[in-house]
Amino acid sequence: MTHRKYHRTNRRRWGSLPNRMLLIAPAALAEQMEYRGWSNRRLAKYAECAPGTIDNLMNGRTKGVNNPRTAELICEAMGLPLSLVFAPEKSSTACHTGMQSNAAA
Q1: What angle do CA 99, 104, 105 make, to 5 degrees?
Q2: Angle between the 51-59 and 26-36 helix axes, to the nearest 10 degrees?
Q3: pLDDT (tens digit, 9 = 90+) per residue, 53-62?
Q4: How far apart are CA 86 and CA 105, in angstroms?
Q5: Is the model's pTM score more than 0.90?
Q6: What is 27-84's CATH number, 3.40.50.12500, 3.40.640.10, 1.10.260.40, 3.20.19.10?
């Protein structure tokens, strides 16, 4: 009988995940894309993400991106500051913690 070795990864199942970045200035992003003549597909290639990600951002079907690096690359391609176009999403646990501390005061 042979024993199987289970593959172990360094990836944590529920560990700290990168912050989701919310698109706060879709008009500025669209304006820069039009000005530079960039398509959604071209921006997706530069930002190393799926074309559907950019399509969904531009059409309002999604409000942000899961990978902060994608947000950085989008802003880099358009020559826009990250803080103007994206903002980190507040986690629900941080909101609840803040509410509890305010209620205790």
Answers
A1: 100
A2: 120
A3: 999 999 999 9
A4: 32
A5: no
A6: 1.10.260.40
